[in-house]
Every structure is written in C-alpha cells, then in structure tokens.
Design a protein that fits this description.
2 copies of one chain form a homodimer. By secondary structure, chain A is α/β, with parallel strands linked by helices. In chain A, 28% of the residues lie in helices and 29% in strands. Chain A contains 9 helices and 16 strands. The N and C termini of chain A lie close together (12 Å).
C-alpha cells in the first residue's frame, strides 16, 4: 500500500507495508482522512505516537472494511465505516479495533464521514464524560471555528447548553454565532477579553487547546464548580494559579487527550457517539463542518492552511 | 441556649439564641461536636461561613433530635443521631436539614459518633464521588494522622485500595501504618520526599490539605490519570505547573470543599455514607480515631492541640 512518509519534516506519498489485522481488529480500505492539529505537531516531532500505534499520521478515517480479524463480532466486510485511529489514517489501508469503528451516518457521504471521529469524540468525551456537562450550562470553546469548536457548538445547541467562542477573525466569530453560539470574541495576541460581561456567573466548562497563555484568564472566567479542560498547548505549557481560589470555587483543571487512552475507553466513547450523536446526524440536526476536501497529495498544502489558521471547520484529505 | 462566641480571637461559652427549625430541618440537642482545621481558620477570620450558615463554629455533632420541622420524613424526635453541619456545632442546640443527619452506628456511643461526619464525608466524597477511586489504586494522604487521614486509611483498606501517608513525626507514621497504610514518610519543613521509590508508577489520588508548598511535588508524584484533590491551603496558595505534563498524563487538579455545597449534594454524600460506610461501622471494621475527648469549656485548649499538630485523630468536645 501507499502511505504518507515524513522525510526532513516534509510529507511524501510512498510505499509502506500493509498493517497486520488480527483478533478484534478490522482492516479498512481508506476513502478519506482529515487533518488535525496533532498531525502538525507529530510531523514536527513534537507529539510522538503512543506505544503500539502506527507511526503514520492520521487520527481518523472513513472507508470500507476489507478484512476482519477472527474475533470481530459487530463489523462486516464491505461495510462503509468511519473510525477513530491512534494513527495511520494518511494511508491506503489502516487497521484498528472494531470498537473504534462505526457505520457512517445515513445523512453523510463516505467522504464527509471522515471528518467526524476525532472532533466529535473529543467533544463528547471531554464535555459529557470528563466534564459532566449538564443542561443549561455554559461552555467556552477557544478556536471556535476549528473542527472541535464547530462540533462543540452544535452539540451544545442540541443538548440544551450555551456555547461561547473565541476565534481569530470577525468572519470566524460570525460563522460560530450562525452555527449556534451565543457570543464570540475576536482574540488578541496571547489573550482574550473577559467573558464576565456576557456570563457574570462565569463559564461552567472551558474546552481549551491553548494552555499556558490563556491559563490565568481561563481560571478567572470559570464559574463555581467550573471545569477547565485542557486539550492542547498551542499557547505554551507554563501555568500559574491561586490554589485558594480553585478550592473556594471548587473548580477542576483537567488535562485530557483521547489518543493515548486504552482501547476500552475509546470504545466506550465511540459507543456513546453511536447512541447519542448518530441519531442527530441521521436526523440532519448536526453535521461535520468541512472547510475543504483536498487530495492526499496536497497534504502539505492542507497542513499549511491549518497552521495559518485559514480554515473554518475540518480539512478532509481524499485518498481513494 | 449556650454556644461558643468569639471575642477578639478567643472563644467564650455564652448565651445565644436558639436556631429556628422549619420545613425539612431538625433541631438537635447536642451531645458533642469535634474540632476541625476549618474551625481554627474560621476563628482567625480566614474562613467565613457560607451564606445562610450559622456564624457559630462547628461542622459536625452528635446528639438527640428534640424537634422536627413540618416536612421532615425520615427522622424522629428522641433519635440518637450524628450530623454534618455547615456551622453551629459548638452549641447546645443546632438546626440542620434532615438529610444531613444519620442515626448513630450500633458500634459507637453517642459521644464517639460526633467524630464521624466531617472526616468520613470528606473522604468519601473526595475519594469516591469526586475522585472515582477504584479497587487497587494508590492514595496518598498528607497529614496521615489527622482525622481525615485516619478515616481515609481505613476506607482504603476496606475498599481494596492502598494508602500512603506523610506525617509530622515517626510516631504518627507508625500509627498510620498500624492502622493500614502501606508506607509513611516523615515530612520535612515545606516538602516531602518523593514516593517514586515506593510507587514507581505514581499515586492515583493525592488528598491534599497543604496546597502551595506541596503543589509541584504532588504533581510529580501523580500517576497517569491521577487526581490531585486539594482540600486545604495550609501551605499557601501559589501554584505553578507544567500544563504539558498535565495534558500528556491526563491528570486532574480538583479544588474541593464540602461545606459550601448545596443541601442536595451534602444529602447525597450522607446517603452514600449510610449505604457504604455505616455497615462497616456496625461490623466494627472501621471506627473514628479519637485522640481525646474534652469539655466544650476546654475548646481553646483543644484548638491549641490541633494548631500544634499534637493530635492523632479527632478531638471531641463534649457539650451536654
């Protein structure tokens, strides 16, 4: 098969060995993958794959099941699926546990379905499973126009919650508000204006890919019993806090990644996605926001678009 | 009735007005209360009672129900009970919601039962409800010989978990190990030796009343998926962290107090205590560790014992 290989920080579409598929795993002939910030970090050598994971980039895909391991129970050869991957999506084939794979929603094409797993799994897991988001609560998404932001805004709307965003441009903020967000703020370099004017009691959850630069401001904007869930460190790793405030406000700071979690936990996330979110896809109430579909040969260009923050929503890379 | 009143930082046993008892509340004629660190902080003006709470010191008591509000369903006049209070325990009478009150365990006297609510509720809530403690996990208690430490060590033992402690003296460490702790370390001023030698994979939960001084060392000792639960700031409020480590290790920092939580949440904690822990009291598998029982007139002396860290376990103050 062919797959993206990295040489001196550049991506090349080259020959690679077909991944083995055993036990409870399925082999997927990939239709498309999608770009995530983590891909850019991994390509730069800053985010090594977890032990046992493919060295090839790509945390999600859509495609057709070509082979099933001897212990596979719920998936079948020929099925159109979308999958959450610990790596290996930038390739013609990938192998993953069957419980990380779901049939594509009825409302979407196979190509579009590549844009679902990573951002919807991240949002569902962090907001509802880790963050215990409740009806009526207020959520702030930094990078509101990102794949995760656009997924999160829609989920908040459907589950009776209010979303707020920061984003890099007025255009992005407007997009987020149109999608369902209550209020957006165009961020300044390394900081954002307080949300105290819009949420005087504070935000219940902040889903934050920024880390260091926003840390103190995030805690300042957090409500009593609020949860700051950090999923990225685009703004550095240094954090300072007043522990007394954290204590008196009963707040939680949660460091969270999905990729390195156990097969079982990721299986539970996918199961919940199928139960809670798939019906919303099928009813056309939500959809993955796709900025652009490009060919895998244009992966380098796709990464550049993301690194320059030019996308609103996901960038899909078509493979076959 | 009489109650402890504070005048220029000193406690006096003086006349006070009987608290009203309405709706779902019960009035308890107090047999005994017990001393908590929070009492010392409140007396010093550093920990004001939450809105609506009694201004009188005292977060727990045992006693006999003297009166019930019109909506009380599960408690009866004449019943011997123990209660979690938001304040008011250093008095002859206190009023509180009926769902914060439990009948005393069969194995304990009314006097001894005053030492249960605050530390067992704190441990149960933080370890099991907030911290999701699982069988086989490892917990570190700072101030292992405190009321909370001695309650936590016993709970870990009964629920198939391993406990570790820091304490101020060799005698305290030995007490903790005898009570069921795996290993204890005598702390030095403002720091403690790493537990890496004893728990190379790190600690799953650290229940920490210290805060600032221990913050970085706590995070260093925390396992992947570990939870640092901060319940006090005896060692200051300044914290610094590496957010990247928190993220990659998927750790949680949780600020937690019970006192200011809703009546409902505290009721849930007491309900779980009755279901999960009361049978262990009744079977004499666990007990509150009581250092000394003193008369309420000696409250000042009792506070001094605690402020000098001379107690192992709880100090009970007998009132009637």
């Amino acid at each position: 098969m062919k797959a993206i290989q990295i040489n001196e920080g550049k991506m090349f579409w080259e020959e690679a060995s077909l991944p083995p598929c055993e036990g409870s795993e399925v082999l997927i002939k990939i239709k498309a993958t999608a770009v995530n910030r983590a891909d850019l970090a991994q390509k730069a050598g800053l985010y090594p794959p977890p032990p046992g994971a493919s060295q090839i980039l790509g945390l999600e895909c859509s495609g057709i099941i070509e082979k099933v391991g001897s212990k596979v129970k719920n998936r079948k050869i020929g099925e159109e699926v979308t999958a959450l991957l610990s790596g290996g999506g930038y390739a013609e084939y990938v192998c993953c546990p069957e419980n990380h794979v779901l049939p594509i929603p009825k409302s979407l094409t196979l190509l579009e379905s590549a844009a679902i797993p990573e951002v919807f799994a991240t949002c569902w897991f962090n907001l509802f499973m880790e963050g215990n988001l409740k009806i009526g609560e207020k959520v702030l998404f930094h990078a509101g126009a990102s794949g995760i932001g656009t997924a999160g805004i829609q989920l908040c709307k459907e589950f009776g919650c209010y979303s707020y965003v920061t984003a890099g441009t007025e255009e992005k903020v407007n997009f987020c508000v149109k999608l369902g967000s209550e209020k957006g703020i165009v961020r300044s370099e390394n900081r954002y204006e307080s949300f105290k004017n819009y949420c005087p009691d504070g935000l219940n959850i902040i889903l934050d890919p920024v880390g260091g630069n926003y840390f103190e401001e995030n805690l300042n904007n957090l409500a009593i019993d609020g949860r700051l869930i950090i999923i990225g460190i685009l703004g550095g790793t240094e954090g300072k806090l007043n522990i007394g405030h954290l204590l008196m406000k009963r707040q939680k700071i949660i460091g969270s990644t999905i990729r390195s979690r156990s097969i079982k936990v990721k299986g539970q996330v996918m199961e919940q996605l199928f139960d809670k979110i798939w019906p919303l896809f099928n009813a056309r109430k939500i959809k993955p926001i796709i900025y652009k579909t490009m060919n895998i040969n244009e992966a380098e260009k796709a990464h550049q678009i993301m690194s320059e923050n030019n996308n609103i929503g996901k960038i899909v890379l078509e493979i076959s």
